[in-house]
Amino acid sequence: MTLRNSVVIVLLGCGFSIAARPALAQAVETVAVTRATGERLVVLPGELVAFEAVNLTARVSGYIDTIPVDRGAEVKRGQLIAELVAPELAAQVAEAQARVQAATAKRVEAETQLATARTVHERLKAAAATPGAVSGLELQSAEEAVKGVTALVDSNAKAVDAANASLDAVRVLQGYLRVVAPFAGRVTERFLHPGALVGPSTGPLIRLEQTSRLRLVVPVPERHYAAITRGRKLEFTVPALVGRKFTGTVARVSGSLDAKTRTMAVELDIQNPDGVLAPGMFPDVSWPVEASSAALLVPSTAVVSTTDRTFVIRVSGGKASWVTVKKGAAHGDLVEVTGALAAGDRVVKRASDEIRDGSAIK
pLDDT: is 329 or 160 the higher one? Predict the structure, then answer.
């Protein structure tokens, strides 16, 4: 046995005992719970889309002769997009013109006959003033002849109108050989090239989008619907342009909730004259909502989430107390919570589950 062991045995044998050292209170930083009041901002995702967009398709069948624009081209309203050739339409125009000429000739012939019938009738009518010069039957036949030719003239005039209408219709179709821009915008896609056979059922020629003005579509959750106000200006950012903020105006509200997502589509008008924003971007919109009267604010670091519960650590009487809470919207470095808390309670600013429930806190 060594000398050290002998000393230990002697001490124990003399009735000495070693007392347990009392646990020291853990020093932590605490903050006061505050109440959320007034308006706050939440970030909602949105999508930028072109204010107007269309896939331009040929209205008549034909071959593409020229397409003077390509992807990325800026076009004006009425500018030529594509020109087609369709020889059969030229033949239809010539045929319609021939029908107009034929109908016109028949009308002129009928008008000549009407003039002759009227002359005969007037002469017989004048001769009838002399008793016995003209029989009543001859005068009646002349009157009937005038009526019959007048009806023929009217019929031929209607035939001319119909032929002209047919000619105008064919000329309208011929005008469709020129495809023009319905609005000013940018060509974002070109699908076909010269020589291709196109028609109403063959698909689009190009896609045209108006990008100088955009729509920002925001799906607003049902709980934030009350904050929708037409004409209000809101800020948003896009990931592609870090550090820049943009502004849009609430312009249109769908008025109906999506049954699957419980959101309502709201559109903001975005002016984009310099073209820095593009359709398809996904902005983050700062959406204003009224703070809940039951919501309290604590630092986001004060909230601890485990597999079993979400809680904050309240400090009262030098003791730690785990208080179960439910997290809400963020306010910068603060977060809304609801639970068995009150404004003015002190909670651990940087909490963790290592600070045990009931432990001493300094």
Answer: 160
Q: What is the pLDDT of residues 150-164, one digit of tens each?
A: 999 899 999 999 999
Closest CA to 208 of 48, 46, 51: 51
Closest alpha carbon to 129 in 118, 137, 115, 139: 139
CB neighbours of 162 closer than 8 A, spacing ≥ 6? 103
Q: Among 103-107, 167-171, 323-327, 330-334, which is the least confidently predicted range?
A: 330-334
Q: What is the rounded distance in angstroms from the CA atom of residue 269 to the CA atom of residue 40?
A: 22
Looking at residue 149, its amino acid is: V
pLDDT at position 13 = 44
Sheet of 178-180: strands edge to edge? 178-180, 80-85, 62-66, 197-198
Whether the Cβ atoms of residue 58 and residue 179 lie closer than 8 Å to each other: yes
269 and 248 in contact (C-beta within 8 Å)?
Answer: yes
Please report where in the chains the tokens 């910068």 appear, as a residue: 332
Confidence of residue 16 (pLDDT cuts 50, 70, 90): very low
Contacts of 172 (CB under 8 A, 6+ apart): none
Cβ–Cβ < 8 Å for 207, 187: yes
Closest-CA residue to 29 (of 352, 288, 330, 258) = 352
Closest CA to 279 of 43, 53, 45: 53
Tens-place pLDDT, residues 104-121:
999 999 889 889 888 887
Q: Which of 182, 210, 218, 207 is nearest to 279 (CA)?
A: 210
In one-letter notation, the amino acid at residue 172 is V
**Alpha helix ranges (H) inside the chain:** 3-13, 87-127, 136-175
Instruction: Give the residue carrying structure tokens 């809400």.
Output: 328
Q: Give the pLDDT confidence score for residue 24 in this predicted structure.
A: 66
CA atoms within 13 A on the CB side of 291: 19
Mean pLDDT of the chain: 86
Higher pLDDT, residue 19 or 275: 275
CB 267 within 8 A of CB 216: yes
* CA gap 276, 161 in Å, rounded: 54
Query: Is the C-alpha dihedral spanning 317, 320, 323, 329 positive or negative?
Result: positive
